[in-house]
Amino acid sequence: MNKADNKCEIVFILGIMPRSGTHFLANLLCGHPDCKKSVLAEDGLVASSSLLAKYADVSNREWEKDGVPEANRAHGLLLKSIGDGLLAFLQNIRQDGISKKTSFPDTLPRYLVTKTPQVIGLENFFKLFPQNKLLILVRDGRAVVESGNISFNYNRERSSRQWRDAANNIIRFTKDTPQTPTNYLIVKYEELHTQTEQEMRKILLFMDLDPDKYDFKKALDMPVVGSSVFKRGDKAVSWLPVVKTADFDPLARASGWTRKQHERFNRIAGPQLEHFGYRPVVFDGNKQWWVLLNLFMDARECLSRLLRKATWPVVRRFKALKNSSAECK
């Protein structure tokens, strides 16, 4: 494929949540000479796709009302056409990168790799991109929650619920989307870390890429980028490559969790955790006490959500007035 073709295939990486390892997977994939990263660090296109799906649904209802023949077929075609436009957008910004930075060689890669650490809108993926490859990256929810807390001070309770909801989204997607060897692949972060060569061979096979062109030794020694392990105190997470040390263990993020933290996560997302093959930490004794404590925490969180929902219009109005005042100065 050369520059005259002006296009390359696009593979999407969607992570279950931020801190799930999409950067790691994208870097591994781009170790293959036939893959290059998108200009955007995270595209967010699928995460916003509900707006596009709603637009297509409204159009379809108008067509049905007007008696347009095969309105449902036109609905599907509209979504695909919107998806084609999004793919063109990713190609166009890559071309802009070529013209301004000359960062791509004359021979274009076979794949452009784009990623987003969210599975919001996952149900719309193949409506928009029926011919594109999709890699869904999952990671142990406890590690995701703890990494988010260390890296960005994310609230563990809310993050646990977000992981549960994202896991349910993936589960629904897999039930509604018959899997074939050519459409999507679920990748587990833990297996990617502990069995890198085996997992990368599976991914390369899925993408029809030549494994003989891939440097597996280099992949094993790849520097770490953006890990919470290397965050120091109040400093921001570093996105510069850091040499991987012998004691680097991203699978031990929640190893210091207390019983209370495990009991709470099991209450919120235990079934989803087990669905993806992760084993909950279960304790003996005082079970009734922990049931009561979880019920209390459920009620407290429910009340907190109601208060946030009730006060949000006021907060939003205050922010709008504040911004308006700042613009007038």
Structure characterization notes:
This protein is of the alpha/beta class and 329 residues long. It is globular. It has helices at 22-29, 49-65, 71-101, 125-128, 141-152, 156-176, 189-194, 196-206, 216-220, 259-275, 287-328; strands spanning 9-15, 35-37, 111-116, 133-138, 184-188. α2 (49-65) packs antiparallel against α3 (71-101). The longest helix is centred in the C-terminal third of the chain and has 42 residues, at 287-328.
Give a nutshell description of this structure:
This protein has 329 residues and is α/β, with parallel strands linked by helices.
How helical, in percent, are the residues?
40-55%
Q: How many domains is the backbone divided into?
A: 1
Low-confidence stretches: none
- Listing every helix as H and every strand as E from the N terminus to the C terminus, the arrangement reads EHEHHEHEHHEHHHHH
CATH superfamily: P-loop containing nucleotide triphosphate hydrolases
**Largest sheet, if any?**
5 strands, parallel
Class inferred from helices and paired strands: alpha/beta
Give the tally of β-strands.
Answer: 5
Instruction: Indicate the radius of gyration in whole angstroms.
Output: 22 Å
Shape: globular
- Give the strand line-up of the largest sheet: 2-3-1-4-5
- Summed over residues and divided by their number, the pLDDT gives a mean of 86
